Amino acid sequence: MAFASFDNRNASAPMAEINMVPLIDVMLVLLVIFIVTAPLLTQAVKLDLPKASSQPNVAKADKIEFAINADGALFWNGESVTRSEAATRFAAESKKLPQPEVHLRADQNVPYRSVAQTLADASKAGLSKVGFVSDPEVP
Fold first, then answer.
1. What pLDDT score was predicted for residue 93?
2. Fewest CB atoms less than 10 Å from the CB: which of 21, 30, 57, 89?
3. What is the model's pTM?
4. Per the domain annotation, does 4 fall within a domain?
């Protein structure tokens, strides 16, 4: 690479040409590297995988319809129960896998205490999926 010359006449003039030889050398080296590595990237192991059709095993959780009427009476899937019976049933249902969902229906005139006691019993038993069921408002 010649960047300077010993000629005094052209020493102050800027160099108007670029030496292309080093750039061509770099490009050739890169080309050789790509030619060597390209076949290594395309190698794959040929496999004939077995074919099987399967359905996902989705376990549907049961649901418990729990209702409290205006008088404060408790109903488990339409069957009248006491608070202690409901607590033992909650404990038995919490051991099932997957855990069932509790759909709680309470009359609008029921004291909040009854609803809170039911939620506490379900929570103590370990049931965490509790939903409140209501009727939509009609305009």
1. 92
2. 57
3. 0.56
4. no
- 24 in any annotated domain: no
Tokens of 105: 């229906």
- Domain assignment present for residue 68? The answer is yes
> Other CB atoms closer than 10 Å to residue 63's CB: what's the count?
13
Domain tally, the chain: 1
> Of 79-83, 95-99, 100-104, 121-125, which gets the smallest average pLDDT?
95-99
The CATH code of the domain that includes 85 is 3.30.420.270
Which pLDDT belongs to residue 19? Answer: 84
- pLDDT tens profile 79-93: 999 999 999 999 999
What is the residue range of 80's domain?
Answer: 63-133
32 is a domain residue: no
